[in-house]
Structure formats: structure tokens, C-alpha cells
Specification:
The complex is a heterodimer of chains A (259) and B (292). With 259 residues, chain A is mainly alpha-helical. The radius of gyration of chain A is 22 Å and the shape is globular. With 292 residues, chain B is mainly alpha-helical. Chain B has one domain: MetI-like (MetI-like fold, Orthogonal Bundle). Chain B has 13 helices and 2 strands. In chain B, β1 and β2 form a beta hairpin. In chain B, α3 packs parallel to α8, α3 packs across α10 and α8 packs antiparallel against α11. The chains are: A mainly alpha (259), B mainly alpha (292). At the A-B interface, α1, α3, α4, α5 and α6 of A face α1, α4, α5, α6 and α7 of B.
Chain lengths: 259, 292
């Protein structure tokens, strides 16, 4: 039952994407096309789609690198600093996770417009880093809190500078946590819709989710191509998730459940 | 004994984060409140000060009442079903069955799927002529002909909720599966195997052990659901006749569809208040139940 509930829509998506254009939809629906074809995929991979794909790739990869990097740096500062202010700051980071994007988007939009950043990668990257950073810090903080700090003390006794200690000891030890956070940020950024819809207006700058939403009108009821495009949009994140699944689950739950 | 060099490094590490979150999360939060006292429209794009005018007008309007009722129904429906389904599936996937590893990975698929893709997929599932759901119900003899689930004011909200539950429940599964690892295995298996009293034991063994996690997760999914824009926007754009308009879709439509940024911001402030109220109500409810 559970398997059917989860997987049937996926199966249907795949089946329709492989259906030749001339094979009619029958009522009741046929679950698997008579003569499967990849035609829908080749027509889905049109020039606009490629533009959207490149845009998504640029924005997402920049966001992942910056957000994970800043996240680790901040999480490290939060674990090491001995200041009364720190726990208040941690609270503010946690609180910021809950801000509704729709409620803060108008002032951000006006700032971006004022700076002439609408329709640029930079506007999306800044917005995405800001909204993913609190969660990244949170996951990595849960992870760093469990590291053996005697190692760090030993390293600082060796008179290695604090940055070298961080770079040569903390970063390698955090690898599983970094991977988990990267997958999380990628999943969130790759599908982000509201900011992308509001901050971009030209076809050249749209990302995949917005482009896909535009396709609904253009394709009408050519569901075959729409489903093929949907599969192409989803493939990269699904692949990343399955490759790093183990790290992701362990890292996320360490941060979320015990943190 | 933090050395001066370490302190300097930590400061450099923290500064960009403080700057970013301050500028792009905390300042906009204040900005929305300020904006809510101004008025602007497509014809008059220059904001003029309106004081409390929008705070007086909006709460009494029919639009607002519809958005409020929809938002609460949507949030409560999605959160309750996601947590129930997430909890049930976590219990299932925690049992030692063959293929468990694969199932655990596959169950996450809807959550990994981009929101717009999930919404388009469900638009298609609900299609009156071509959709799988109508086809299935016709074959079962429940329906004589296809229903336009998303176009009917009485079925649109349940349909949107159902799609959102499908998309989001794996996150609950993930959290509850992780939490179940902390519960004594033997106790759990005894409870699962003991036929007649299985449910009673489950309630007595599992639920108390997970009380904290359940609470945290309900609050978390409430926040995520209340603010979730993609599913409703792609499935119905808030229609038909406002039947599925929730705060995020209404704010977007007012702001970016009609350039009424002031009104959109007032809705934004109300949305934050309503969300805070929902979370507080849940926490109070839980506390009073625990005491009794």
C-alpha cells in the first residue's frame, strides 16, 4: 500500500513521458505505453530548457559552496567561542529558519531592485544563501559538537595557527556533515520557486522550476513532453540524493534529532 | 582560554553570516512591518503613508477571512496527515523486512522531487480526462465520468492537501525512523508481534518514548506547511474562487501580480501573527494534556 502510494505517481510520470505522441490516452488509462519512445525527451531538451538548466546549475552550485562554507565557519565559531553573546546569536539563527519567505520577500525585492540586481544570478544566490544558511549552521553545529576536541587542543599546543588547525583538522573531520549539508542545500535550492519567480522576468535568467511552470501553458495538454521535462529537472537532485543518501540521513538526523 | 588569534579568526568566520542574516532576513522582517503602513498600487506605484488604514480594512474583508480559514485548514490537514503517515511508515520501515534499505531510500523520493515537479505531476493525476485518479475511480465503479477535482470549490482544498501530504510526509518518516533507533528494540518488536494487544502496547511503548520528537516535528512541519507556496500556486493559483488561497499565495498575488506591496505586506504581518498563534496553541494544548 505504502509502496503504491509513493511510487505509482512516479511510474505514471515515466510511463507518460515514454508514450508516443500518436498513442491516444485511453479511458481507463493504460499504465504502460504500447510502443515506448524517447521522442518526448528529445523534444523536451529544447534551447530554453538548456538555458534554464545552466541557470539552475550556476545558482545552485554557487549557493551550495557558499552556504556550506559559511555554515561550517559559523558553526565552528559557535562551538569554540566562549562568549555570553554566542547563545543569543544561536537563538537568532534558529529563529531565522522560521521566517516565512512570502512575508519577507517584498523588502528583499525592493533592495535587489534598488541595487539593480533583478534578473541577475547574484540576486538569487544572495537570497538562497541567506535562507539556507541558518539550516546549514544548525546541521553542522550538531555535527561539530560531537567532534573530539582534545585533538584540537593538541594541535594548538603544537603551535599550529588557529586557521591551520581549522583547515587541517576540523574540515577533514567534518566531511560527512559537509556532504549531508550540501545535499540538503542542493535539494532546497534546486527547487526554489518563489524567489526565482519574483526576481527574474526574462527568459534568459529563469531557473528550471520557473521555466517548468511556464511550460504548463505552452504545452497545453502535451503531457508527454511536460513529464519528460519534469524527469529531466528532477534527475540531478535525485541522483545526488541517492549517491549521498547514507551521509545525508546520518548527518541530518544527527543535527535535527539530537541537536 | 581562547587565544587572541583564535578570537580574531572566529570573528572573521562569524561576520559574513551576521551581515547576511541581518540584511536579508532580519531587516526584511522589520521592512515588511514598515511597508504594511504604506499603500501603493500598479497605477500609483509611489507608496503613500496610510497609517493603520490597511489594518482596519483587511481583517474584516471577505478575502482575508477566506485566506485565514483556508490557511488553517490547509496547515492542520497537511500536518496531521503527514505526521500520521510519517509515523506509520517509520514503524513499518523500522521492522526487519527484506529490502528495507531500498524501501527506506525509495520512500524519500517524493520529498527529494522539486515542488513544482510534484505539483505538475499531481495536476496531471487530477486531470478530469487523462488523470490516473479519475481513471482509477471509474474503473472501480465509484465514478461514472471524470471529475475536475481542482476546479470544484468543495474538492479543491482536499485535493491540494492530499498532494502536499504525498510530497512532504517522507521528511516525517526520516525524523521518526531516526528517533525509533533510540527506543529499545526488543520492547518494540514484542509490541509489534503481539497480535491482539499490539496497538495498545505500541501506544504505551513507542509514543511516550517519542513524545519530544513528535512535538518538535509537529511544530517544524506546521511552520513549513503554513509557508509552503509552490504546491498551491502551481495546482490552483488559489482558485477556484479563492477556495485554496492561503497566505503565501495571496501575498504573492497582491505583491507581484497587482503591485499592491503595502497590502501584501499587511497580509505578511498577519500571516506571521497567525503562524505564531497556531504554534502557541499547539504548545499550550500539549501542555494541558500532559498535566491532566
Amino acid at each position: 500500500m505504502l509502496a503504491a502510494f509513493v511510487l505509482l505517481p512516479f511510474f505514471w510520470m515515466l510511463s507518460v513521458s515514454l508514450k508516443p505522441a500518436d498513442e491516444p490516452f485511453s479511458i481507463p488509462a493504460r499504465l504502460w505505453p504500447k510502443a515506448p519512445t524517447l521522442d518526448n525527451f528529445s523534444s523536451a531538451f529544447r534551447p530554453e530548457f538548456r538555458t534554464y538548466f545552466v541557470n539552475s546549475l550556476i545558482v545552485s552550485s554557487a549557493t551550495v559552496v557558499i552556504s556550506v562554507g559559511l555554515g561550517l565557519a559559523s558553526a565552528y565559531a559557535f562551538t569554540r567561542a566562549k562568549l555570553a553573546l554566542i547563545s543569543a546569536l544561536m537563538g537568532l539563527v534558529a529563529l531565522a529558519q522560521m521566517f516565512p519567505h512570502s512575508a519577507i520577500i517584498i523588502p528583499i525585492y525592493k533592495m535587489m531592485r534598488g541595487a539593480g540586481l533583478l534578473d541577475t544570478y547574484l540576486a538569487l544566490i544572495i537570497a538562497y544563501v541567506s535562507v539556507t544558511l541558518p539550516v546549514a549552521i544548525w546541521i553542522l553545529h550538531g555535527f561539530l559538537a560531537k567532534l573530539p576536541y582534545s585533538l584540537l587542543e593538541a594541535a594548538s599546543l603544537d603551535n599550529a595557527g588557529p586557521f591551520r588547525t581549522f583547515w587541517h583538522i576540523v574540515v577533514p573531520l567534518s566531511r560527512p556533515g559537509l556532504l549531508a549539508t550540501a545535499v540538503y542545500v542542493l535539494i532546497v535550492t534546486w527547487q526554489e520557486f518563489l524567489f526565482a519567480l519574483s526576481f527574474t522576468s526574462t527568459k534568459e535568467m529563469r531557473t528550471l522550476p520557473v521555466g517548468l511552470n511556464d511550460f504548463i501553458g505552452q504545452y497545453g495538454i502535451r503531457y508527454g513532453e511536460l513529464m519528460a521535462s519534469s524527469i529531466l529537472v528532477s534527475a540531478p537532485v535525485i541522483a545526488a540524493f541517492f549517491l549521498l543518501q547514507r551521509h545525508f540521513v546520518a548527518g541530518l538526523t544527527a543535527g535535527a534529532v539530537k541537536g | 582560554m581562547t587565544s587572541r588569534r583564535l578570537r580574531w579568526l572566529l570573528f572573521v568566520f562569524l561576520a559574513p553570516t551576521v551581515l547576511l542574516l541581518g540584511t536579508f532576513l532580519y531587516y526584511p522582517m522589520v521592512g515588511t512591518v514598515i511597508e504594511s503602513f504604506y499603500k501603493s498600487s500598479f497605477i500609483n506605484p509611489n507608496p503613500t503613508f496610510a497609517g493603520f488604514e490597511q489594518y482596519r480594512k483587511i481583517p474584516g474583508s471577505r478575502d482575508f477571512r477566506e485566506v485565514l480559514v483556508n490557511s488553517v485548514a490547509w496547515t492542520v490537514g497537511v500536518v496531521a496527515l503527514q505526521n500520521l503517515l510519517g509515523f506509520g511508515s517509520a514503524l513499518l520501515l523500522n521492522a526487519k523486512v527484506p529490502g528495507r534499505g531500498l524501501m527506506r531510500a525509495l520512500v524519500m523520493l517524493p520529498w527529494v522531487l522539486p515542488g513544482v515537479v510534484a505539483a505538475i505531476l499531481w495536476r496531471f493525476m487530477y486531470d478530469p480526462q487523462l488523470g490516473l485518479i479519475n481513471s482509477f475511480l471509474i474503473r472501480l465503479g465509484v465514478l461514472d465520468e471524470g471529475t475536475a477535482w481542482l476546479a470544484d470549490t468543495s474538492t479543491a482544498m482536499p485535493a491540494v492537501v492530499f498532494a502536499a501530504v504525498w510530497k512532504g510526509f517522507p521528511f516525517c518518516t526520516l525524523i521518526y525512523l531516526a528517533a525509533l533507533q533510540n527506543i529499545d528494540r526488543e520492547q518494540l518488536e514484542a509490541a509489534m508481534l503481539d497480535g491482539a494487544r499490539a496497538f495498545g502496547r505500541l501506544v504505551h511503548v513507542v509514543i511516550p518514548g517519542l513524545r519530544e520528537i513528535i512535538a518538535v516535528n509537529v511544530v517544524l512541519t506546521t511552520i513549513l506547511t503554513f509557508n509552503y507556496f509552490d504546491m498551491v500556486w502551481v495546482l490552483t493559483r488559489g482558485g477556484p474562487k479563492n477556495a485554496t488561497h492561503i497566505f503565501p499565495t495571496r501575498i504573492f498575488e497582491l505583491g507581484f501580480g497587482q503591485f499592491r506591496f503595502g497590502e501584501a505586506s499587511t497580509y505578511g504581518v498577519f500571516s506571521i501573527l497567525v503562524l505564531a498563534l497556531l504554534v502557541t496553541l499547539y504548545v499550550l494544548l500539549r501542555r494541558s494534556r500532559q498535566r491532566s
